[in-house]
């Protein structure tokens, strides 16, 4: 009795293991264009979603689920990546730094999603990460101004580039190291632990900005970096808008995850780009689609196209 | 006993009484601390959960409580701009998913418990008991990863095989399977204790009256242990209702409408609280406390209802 039961248990485990193996090796059927497109998206709080929707010309969907196609599926970055390894008829988007060979990364408007194409500005589904500072002489103190200038110089170094890349964005190429330029910034030699520098602007850049200031503080006399990120619109308003810059929400450095508008004009020395954030539309490896346009993606996400064959028919 | 001995004994008694008093104080303090945490947590969730209904949420206006409890869309309009939040459909899908997962985990769990307690030979029972206890202690994120990596694929392939296109496997079915896997060990281990504590004389009496082993197991032992088994089910339901991490990886994040289609996406109160929590601010953050409040109410009401049923079902001769 005892042996028979033990044998039964082993047999059961063996069979279930075999069943798993069998399920994993089902052969792929040819791609069926009449199938419904399964639309995957990030939730409305995601900066990647805001960048993607703005990039495909569907800004209304940046923070509003109700304009999206019916039956969309909400997942996080990794969730969308793994979903595209399972769901043959799905489409999603992730940040370029997360793309790997388990999914098919789509060309956007005929351009391959590579870091090189982002930096040479041919790949279009991306947004710039910009910085803006207060005007010369318009800081709470000379120390703050010197620290901000040192920080901006730091942003252009390969040291900062590594930090930006580690946080999922694409740094602009640089061969300058911090060690080679730090002597131009004597402020970094003194103790700045009593000096507070205020950072703000885009919340999409907050993670990158905090990583950058965290790395820069010990290099610059341990000044205090205060982060209060409220949106790209506040990058200009809180550093240069005369009505706001000197109130309690005023900032020394503001970040924006888009190019500055003509209404946000400041002298060139006061603004610049620190990185690119590139987003890639991805599908299952079995999907024959290789290239999409912004219009295609908008039609998929707003529900104009519901079947894969709708894309060929155009 | 000499006079000296008596004095020594009395001294000892006095000393041990002091230790008793001290120990009692320590225990009382420990009990007060753990109990106060419950009040603290409940209090903060209660307080923060009510804020969206009472304040004007930084200019967005008060959230309408009735709309919140009955709406079948999570948010009408833009995040950070609209205050039209709703969880009505989430309450229903949470209860639906919990019921379905109990339909799987309850029979499997109880029968496993019966097997371990009464049928399996001692060495096998010992191994199985260890396996079940290990399973019960696996963190939910591991179940979630298993769900996202294995169950989603199985559900996707299964639905393709029956000619239905699922949403990449993200579905009620996948959620129910993950929750069933998570609650089976809870139900099994508690049911097993209940089954083992059934008075042996009942079992012997049944056997002596000529009932077979199987008849005894089902008609006498399970019936006698039903109170304990019911407790197991209540704890299983509690775990299902409160699970967030694992569920959010396989549910699909449904934003509107109740769906009873097993292969369609779904959402629960817990997944709604979790999704985007780390990125959001303002009302969109505060409202998650309100969802937590609703979840606590749902769990409380479900528990009260199940306990009422349990009292009516009653218990038969379970050894105290």
A few lines on this structure:
Chain A is an alpha/beta fold and 314 residues long. Chain A has eleven helices and twelve strands.
Which features would summarize this protein structure in a list?
heterodimer, A: 314 residues, alpha/beta, D-Maltodextrin-Binding Protein, domain 2, 2 domains, two-stranded parallel ribbon, B: 320 residues, MetI-like fold, 73% helix
Walkthrough of the structure:
The complex is a heterodimer of chains A (314) and B (320). Chain A is of the alpha/beta class. Chain A folds into two domains: 36-103 and 284-313, Periplasmic binding protein-like II (D-Maltodextrin-Binding Protein, domain 2, 3-Layer(aba) Sandwich); 128-276, D-Maltodextrin-Binding Protein, domain 2 (3-Layer(aba) Sandwich). Chain A has eleven helices and twelve strands. In chain A, strands 1, 2, 3, 4, 6, 7, 8, 9, 10 and 11 form a ten-stranded mixed sheet that branches. In chain A, strands 5-12 form a two-stranded parallel sheet. In chain A, helix 8 links the parallel strand 8 and strand 9 (224-229). The longest helix of chain A has 23 residues, at 2-24. The relative contact order of chain A is 0.19. In chain B, a hairpin with a 7-residue loop joins strand 1 (75-76) and strand 2. Chain B has a two-stranded antiparallel ribbon. Chain B has two domains: 3-54; 84-313, MetI-like (MetI-like fold), CATH 1.10.3720.10. Chain B is built from twelve helices and two strands. Chain B is an all-alpha fold and 320 residues long. Chain B starts with a helix and ends in a 7-residue tail after the last helix. In chain B, helix 9 (226-242) packs antiparallel against helix 12. The longest helix of chain B has 52 residues, at 3-54.
């Amino acid at each position: 009795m005892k042996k028979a039961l033990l044998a039964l248990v082993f047999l059961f485990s063996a069979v279930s293991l075999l069943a798993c193996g069998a399920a994993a090796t089902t052969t792929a059927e040819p791609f069926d264009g009449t199938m419904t497109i399964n639309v995957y998206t990030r939730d409305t709080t995601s900066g990647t979603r805001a960048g993607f929707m703005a990039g495909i010309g569907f800004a209304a969907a940046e923070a509003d689920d109700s304009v999206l196609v019916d039956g969309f599926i909400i997942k996080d970055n990794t969730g969308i990546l793994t979903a595209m390894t399972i769901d043959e008829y799905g489409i999603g988007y992730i940040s370029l730094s997360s793309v790997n060979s388990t999914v098919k990364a789509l060309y956007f408007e005929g351009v391959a999603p590579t870091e090189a194409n982002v930096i040479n500005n041919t790949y279009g589904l991306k947004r710039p990460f910009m910085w803006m500072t207060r005007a010369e002489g318009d800081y709470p103190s000379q120390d703050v101004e010197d620290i901000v200038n040192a920080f901006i110089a730091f942003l252009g170094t390969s040291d900062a580039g590594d930090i930006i890349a580690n946080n999922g964005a694409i740094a602009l190429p640089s061969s300058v190291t911090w060690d080679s330029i730090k002597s131009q910034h004597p402020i970094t030699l003194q103790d700045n632990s009593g000096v507070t520098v205020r950072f703000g602007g885009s919340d999409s850049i907050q993670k990158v900005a905090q990583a950058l200031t965290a790395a820069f503080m010990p290099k610059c006399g341990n000044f205090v970096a205060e982060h209060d990120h409220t949106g790209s619109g506040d990058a200009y308003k809180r550093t240069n808008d005369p009505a706001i810059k000197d109130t309690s929400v005023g900032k020394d450095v503001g970040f924006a995850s888009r190019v500055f508008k003509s209404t946000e004009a400041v002298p060139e020395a006061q603004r610049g780009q620190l990185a690119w954030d590139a987003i890639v539309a991805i599908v299952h490896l079995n999907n024959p689609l290789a290239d999409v346009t912004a219009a295609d993606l908008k039609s998929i996400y707003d529900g104009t196209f519901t079947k894969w064959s709708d894309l060929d028919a155009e | 006993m000499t006079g000296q001995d008596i004095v020594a004994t009395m001294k000892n008694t006095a000393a041990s009484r002091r230790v008793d008093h001290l120990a009692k104080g320590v225990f009382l303090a420990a009990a007060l601390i753990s109990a106060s945490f419950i009040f603290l947590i409940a209090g903060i969730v209660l307080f923060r959960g009510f804020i969206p209904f009472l304040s004007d949420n930084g200019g967005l206006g008060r959230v309408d409580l009735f709309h919140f409890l009955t709406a079948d869309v999570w948010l009408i309009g833009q995040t950070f701009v609209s205050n039209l939040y709703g969880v009505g459909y989430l309450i229903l899908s949470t209860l639906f998913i919990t019921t379905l997962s109990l339909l799987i985990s309850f029979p499997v769990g109880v029968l496993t418990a019966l097997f371990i307690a009464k049928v399996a030979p001692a060495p096998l029972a010992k191994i199985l008991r260890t396996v079940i206890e290990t399973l019960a202690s696996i963190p939910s994120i591991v179940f979630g990863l298993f769900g996202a990596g294995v169950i989603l694929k199985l559900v996707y392939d299964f639905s393709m095989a029956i000619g239905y296109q699922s949403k990449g496997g993200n579905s009620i079915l996948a959620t129910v399977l993950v929750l069933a896997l998570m609650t089976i060990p809870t139900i099994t281990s508690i049911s097993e204790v209940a089954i083992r504590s059934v008075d042996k004389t009942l079992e012997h009496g049944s056997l002596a009256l000529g009932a077979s082993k199987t008849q005894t197991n089902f008609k006498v032992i399970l019936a006698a242990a039903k109170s304990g088994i019911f407790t197991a089910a209540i704890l299983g339901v509690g775990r299902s209702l409160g699970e967030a991490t694992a569920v959010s990886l396989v549910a699909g994040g449904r934003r509107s409408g109740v769906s009873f289609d097993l292969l369609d996406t779904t959402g629960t109160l817990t997944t709604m609280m979790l999704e985007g929590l780390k990125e959001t601010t303002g009302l969109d953050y505060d409202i998650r406390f309100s969802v937590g409040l609703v979840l606590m109410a749902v769990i409380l009401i479900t528990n009260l209802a199940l306990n009422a049923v349990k009292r009516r079902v009653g218990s038969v001769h379970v050894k105290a």
